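re: ur question from yesterday

yeah so i grabbed the chain u mentioned. its 144 aa long if i counted rite. heres the sequnce exactly as i have it in my notes:
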Amino acid sequence: MKRDGFTMLELVIVLIIVGLAVSLTAPRLARDARKIRFKKDIGRIFSTIRYARSKAVFSGRKQSLVFDQASGEYWLDDGKKMKLHEGNWFGDIRIVRFKSEESKIKKIDFDTNGSASESSITVAMEGDEAVIAVSRFDSRVVVR
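ran it thru and got these structure tokens back, copy pasting raw so excuse formatting
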């Protein structure tokens, strides 16, 4: 006798195995997705800092990159606002030439000669953080 198809028992066993595999990998996939969004935020801030410096040098006009710690937003003073992904936030933001350290809004100034306010921006997520440092004289950007 020739059988076509699968028995109900075989289908149930396969579904149980697939269900176990999904339940074991789902938490890791969610954690990896958060880590990817974290790295994407760091990359976007890094690129925005470099863009602001280039814009100041080539346009001949001073540029400012503004950070709002309370809302997780940042923007060039003449551009649209960008926001950190959900679950990420700004930690400590230190800017050497900034007058009021108590304010939740801080800005990095980029001069037409390529220099910038010496600064460090901490981006954090649960269990991890990265510090983006901007050097004063050449506006070199380093992520630690």
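noticed a couple things. The longest strand covers residues 88-95. also The helical segments are 8-59.
anyway ttyl
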